[in-house]
Amino acid sequence: MAVMHRIRIFHAFLALTVLAAYFSAEMGLIHAWLGYGVAALITFRLIWALSGVPQLGLERFYPSFKDMHLKGIATHPAISRVLLAGIALSVIGATGTGIMMDNGRAFQPTSLSSFSFSGEDESEEHESEGGEDESGEAYEEAHELLANLAIAFVVMHVLYLLAFKRPLARFMLFANKSAK
């Protein structure tokens, strides 16, 4: 299987996992597990980048404004790279703050036995009784901000690709015509 097809499959898994995590924000343990899934996919991608294959390198996320002119600015690679870097940083930040807030509670046997779809679990109730500390509240605010920022970058990324890089968008969305 060609590298670009593997990237496309990885992209689909990551995109679906990030979206599922975002839209499950009020689902407690499900949200936490999806967040850990995103963390695993990010870790896998970072290790995959070490393979030495040029298409997998992290330099794809570094924007270079070299040779950028007003003519052709909309299709310059720097625009795509800025959007990719914004997505990467905000998803990594949201995932990191989520893991810090969870602090491994999703892996404890008690959380698995008292599986809950609600955003409030037993540990959160105990925190609210004793008064939530300010750092936990700051993590939660940062987590929500970064998650919303990630979705904003994703929307801009999709709109940009559809407007200026339609063949690539079709390929990544499995909508390209297959050559038989």
TrEMBL record:
<dbReference type="InterPro" id="IPR011577">
    <property type="entry name" value="Cyt_b561_bac/Ni-Hgenase"/>
</dbReference>
<keyword id="KW-0812">Transmembrane</keyword>
<keyword id="KW-0472">Membrane</keyword>
<feature type="transmembrane region" description="Helical">
    <location>
        <begin position="145"/>
        <end position="164"/>
    </location>
</feature>
<dbReference type="Pfam" id="PF01292">
    <property type="entry name" value="Ni_hydr_CYTB"/>
</dbReference>
<dbReference type="GO" id="GO:0009055">
    <property type="term" value="F:electron transfer activity"/>
</dbReference>
<feature type="region of interest" description="Disordered">
    <location>
        <begin position="115"/>
        <end position="137"/>
    </location>
</feature>
<dbReference type="GO" id="GO:0005886">
    <property type="term" value="C:plasma membrane"/>
</dbReference>
<keyword id="KW-1003">Cell membrane</keyword>
<feature type="transmembrane region" description="Helical">
    <location>
        <begin position="78"/>
        <end position="101"/>
    </location>
</feature>
<keyword id="KW-1133">Transmembrane helix</keyword>
<dbReference type="GO" id="GO:0022904">
    <property type="term" value="P:respiratory electron transport chain"/>
</dbReference>
<feature type="transmembrane region" description="Helical">
    <location>
        <begin position="35"/>
        <end position="58"/>
    </location>
</feature>
<protein>
    <recommendedName>
        <fullName>Cytochrome b561 bacterial/Ni-hydrogenase domain-containing protein</fullName>
    </recommendedName>
</protein>
<dbReference type="InterPro" id="IPR016174">
    <property type="entry name" value="Di-haem_cyt_TM"/>
</dbReference>
<feature type="compositionally biased region" description="Acidic residues">
    <location>
        <begin position="119"/>
        <end position="137"/>
    </location>
</feature>
<feature type="domain" description="Cytochrome b561 bacterial/Ni-hydrogenase">
    <location>
        <begin position="7"/>
        <end position="167"/>
    </location>
</feature>
